[in-house]
């Protein structure tokens, strides 16, 4: 197996890189858990509003049910070398009650507005409380770039 050499980034560089990825990436893995049924993980489209990730899923999906039962979630961007893990609490907004700005940003990014669909959807909003970012073993130390909802310097 070939390894990739990296020069460890400072916290400010990692934070900048995380924010850039949140603003440009399309997919995130959302991990939820139900107290009786255990873990559940799905890839979802997301938009970033500068403070929170917004995703959308069916109102009766396992993801929506899990978030209602246990709002603590984990999210990860889909790169196993340039890792970004986020933790926070999720909040569900029925498609007809979601803030208009969040729904418009989601629709503009993906060309799809769930509010116009036949079935019921919920928007899932997660404000990160903890963010970890690293590229390979050299960056494991100092991987926390947000703690208690505050970006670290």
Descriptive account of the structure:
The structure is a single chain. This protein has a single domain (11-151), classed as Pnp Oxidase, Chain A. The protein has a 6-stranded antiparallel barrel. It is of the alpha+beta class. It has helices spanning 11-24, 62-69, 100-110, and strands at 27-34, 38-48, 53-58, 72-76, 82-94, 121-135, 144-147, 150-151. Helix content is 22%, strand content 42%. The protein contains 3 helices and 8 strands, in the order H-E-E-E-H-E-E-H-E-E-E. The mean pLDDT is 95. It starts with 10 loop residues before the first helix and ends with a strand. The longest helix is centred in the N-terminal third of the chain and has 14 residues, at 11-24. This is General stress protein 26. GO terms for molecular function: coenzyme F420 binding; oxidoreductase activity, acting on the CH-CH group of donors. InterPro entries: F420H2_bilvrd_red/Heme_oxyg (IPR052019), Pyridox_Oxase_N (IPR011576), Split_barrel_FMN-bd (IPR012349).
Quick overview:
With 153 residues, the chain is an alpha+beta fold. Helix content is 22%, strand content 42%. It has a single domain (11-151), classed as Pnp Oxidase, Chain A (Roll).
- Give the radius of gyration: 16 Å
CATH fold field value:
Pnp Oxidase, Chain A
Sheet with the most strands, sense and barrel status: 6 strands, antiparallel, barrel
What is the N-to-C order of secondary-structure elements (H for helix, E for strand)? HEEEHEEHEEE
């Amino acid at each position: 197996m070939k390894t990739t050499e990296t020069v460890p980034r400072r916290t400010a560089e990692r934070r900048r890189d995380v924010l850039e990825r949140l603003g440009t990436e399309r997919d995130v893995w959302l991990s939820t858990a139900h107290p009786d049924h255990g873990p559940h993980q799905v890839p979802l489209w997301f938009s970033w509003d500068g403070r929170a990730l917004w995703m959308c899923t069916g109102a009766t999906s396992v993801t929506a049910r899990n978030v209602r039962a246990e709002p603590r979630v984990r999210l990860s961007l889909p790169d196993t070398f340039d890792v970004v893990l986020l933790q926070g609490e999720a909040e569900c907004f029925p498609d007809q009650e979601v803030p208009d700005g969040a729904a418009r940003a989601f629709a503009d990014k993906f060309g799809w507005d769930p509010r116009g669909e036949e079935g019921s959807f919920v928007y899932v909003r997660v404000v990160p409380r903890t963010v970890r970012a690293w590229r390979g073993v050299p960056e494991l130390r100092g991987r926390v770039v947000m703690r208690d909802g505050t970006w670290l310097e």
